[in-house]
Amino acid sequence: MHQSKLDFFCKLGYGKQDICKVLENLGQEALEDDVLKELIRMGSKPQALENQAQPSPLKLVARGSCSASPGLKWLGEDESDSSDHLRPIVIDGSNVAMSHGNKEVFSCWGIQLAVDWFRERGHTYIKVFVPLWRKEPPRQDSPISDQHILEELEKQSILVYTPCRKVKGKRVVCYDDRYIVKVAYEKDGVIVSNDHYRDLQNENPEWKWFIEQRLLMYSFVSNRFMPPDDPLGRHGPTLNNFLSKKPVLPEPKWQPCPYGKKCTYGNKCKFYHPERPHQVQVSVADELRAKIKVPLNLGKEEEQRNRSP
């Protein structure tokens, strides 16, 4: 009897200690209602109600997600993807600034436009190289506009000054193009410039291939930075694939054969023949042999039948 009552109240969620204490006070033959009233009077509560009464700790949930852990994982994936699948960008600051200033003014606003364009695409590694002497006050023979932009980009660790110094009143400038090509080559990135760097191509054969394949030209249209949609020509990759480490290859589109049914290349023809979409392309010679072979075999069978008694 004691065990059955103990099991009954345990199923209701009460603790064994409280149940045993009540049964000792009321006796083993006490009614279930009396035991329940005594448990309530003692302040004992089922475990389910105790769990509900305890306030659960607050959990920060990412906006747009149902739980905390998937949201955090999603944010981590976005951060890794932005640096993994997009190539590093190395900008020829002097070339971009002079291009935006119509080759008359060193326009720092042009550099800012280029940096913002790549930022909006999600590129995390962006470096701009500018000679150190551009920090100096502008002169009549080398005017500069919006020079404060250089300081802001330097604070953001985007702009890098190439070194220079003065020797006996003359400025000794290091070759900034070599910095640009070297960093882009080591980072396996993209060079943003309209310069072809022919002298550096002749210096290093590896740099020659890299400059030919990773140079991104551009234009400025009404203060808008616009790289071409086909950086390597009509038959080259798209701009998205050019700026991606893992380009998405387009599905092959079969071009119809210009000769149509008169084509004599057979299975060696690289074009598409719509007249036989579900058939394996066979050369014309094989088709003729197949047609001739059938009547020859029939003729041989008839001769054998006539010769047999």
TrEMBL record:
<comment type="similarity">
    <text>Belongs to the ZC3H12 family.</text>
</comment>
<dbReference type="Pfam" id="PF18039">
    <property type="entry name" value="UBA_6"/>
</dbReference>
<keyword id="KW-0460">Magnesium</keyword>
<dbReference type="InterPro" id="IPR040546">
    <property type="entry name" value="Rege-1_UBA-like"/>
</dbReference>
<dbReference type="GO" id="GO:0005634">
    <property type="term" value="C:nucleus"/>
</dbReference>
<dbReference type="GO" id="GO:0016787">
    <property type="term" value="F:hydrolase activity"/>
</dbReference>
<keyword id="KW-0255">Endonuclease</keyword>
<dbReference type="InterPro" id="IPR000571">
    <property type="entry name" value="Znf_CCCH"/>
</dbReference>
<keyword id="KW-0540">Nuclease</keyword>
<dbReference type="InterPro" id="IPR021869">
    <property type="entry name" value="RNase_Zc3h12_NYN"/>
</dbReference>
<feature type="domain" description="C3H1-type">
    <location>
        <begin position="251"/>
        <end position="276"/>
    </location>
</feature>
<dbReference type="GO" id="GO:0004521">
    <property type="term" value="F:RNA endonuclease activity"/>
</dbReference>
<keyword id="KW-0479">Metal-binding</keyword>
<dbReference type="Pfam" id="PF11977">
    <property type="entry name" value="RNase_Zc3h12a"/>
</dbReference>
<protein>
    <submittedName>
        <fullName>ZC12D ribonuclease</fullName>
    </submittedName>
</protein>
<dbReference type="GO" id="GO:0036464">
    <property type="term" value="C:cytoplasmic ribonucleoprotein granule"/>
</dbReference>
<dbReference type="GO" id="GO:0008270">
    <property type="term" value="F:zinc ion binding"/>
</dbReference>
<keyword id="KW-0862">Zinc</keyword>
<keyword id="KW-0863">Zinc-finger</keyword>
<keyword id="KW-0378">Hydrolase</keyword>
<dbReference type="InterPro" id="IPR051101">
    <property type="entry name" value="ZC3H12/N4BP1_RNase_Reg"/>
</dbReference>
<feature type="zinc finger region" description="C3H1-type">
    <location>
        <begin position="251"/>
        <end position="276"/>
    </location>
</feature>
<dbReference type="GO" id="GO:0003729">
    <property type="term" value="F:mRNA binding"/>
</dbReference>
